[in-house]
Amino acid sequence: MKKNSKLLQLSNECRKDLVKLIFNSKTSHLGSSLSCIDIIVSIYFSKFGLKGSINNKKKLKNTFILSKGHAAPALYVIMNKKGLLSDSKLKNYCKPGSYLEEHPNIKIDGVIVSSGSLGHGLSYSAGISLADKINNKNYKHIVLMSDGECNEGSVWEAGMFIPAKKIENILVFIDCNKWQATERTKDIMAFEPIKKKWQAFGWFVKEIDGHNFDDIEKCLRDFHLKKKPTVVVCRTTKGKGVSFMEDDNLWHYRAPNQKEYEKAIKELEKKF
Question: Hey, what domains does the chain have and what are their CATH numbers?
Fold first, then answer.
């Protein structure tokens, strides 16, 4: 059995659930969710991921904030696989009266930040981590952001604040799939050299293949050993896992039709 084959298979199952969820709800952000699903699977299921109760509102310890809120469908299918979200609630995604919306809702158990507008997740995590430091706690706090999100000034404010307060227990994954809502990331803002920018702010920075579970696990395993907060620049592919969706920004807002849905599921079923 290949190393991390269980995570690969689980991620593939989550992709099928994700495609089905978007198809049935006729909603958006399928491509954006597919690009980061391997990262979120690792956070929830890797032996080096977050242990125990994640985002327990009654007794907050280890936390995960999906700052890239439009990837909520990926989070929901993974929470369902983890047993944190029931099948019946998942089926009601984006239906009237459901808390499962296109962005995370704090009313959902296991969600601590309603990350609608981009650029806020890191600041929330900074506050939680600083409270840990003041109270002599050493819990792990993980944030997933998008490359387009790094256009927001609040990201860089938090990026300066965290090293200044010598906060070390934050791990940030940046899903760099090279696209924003309507254009290439590089054509909106001067995104690169993103690694050097974070290094200049006082962070430990690592660049990886965001679909390689070995690389992701090493970051989860080692980040708390650093004497700096950690940023992981994840080079990913929008629409990853479904060949006709890969690197095609059409799938930022569009849901598959019946024929496209069947084609996507058939392709994913062939992988395992």
Answer: 5-269 (3.40.50.970)
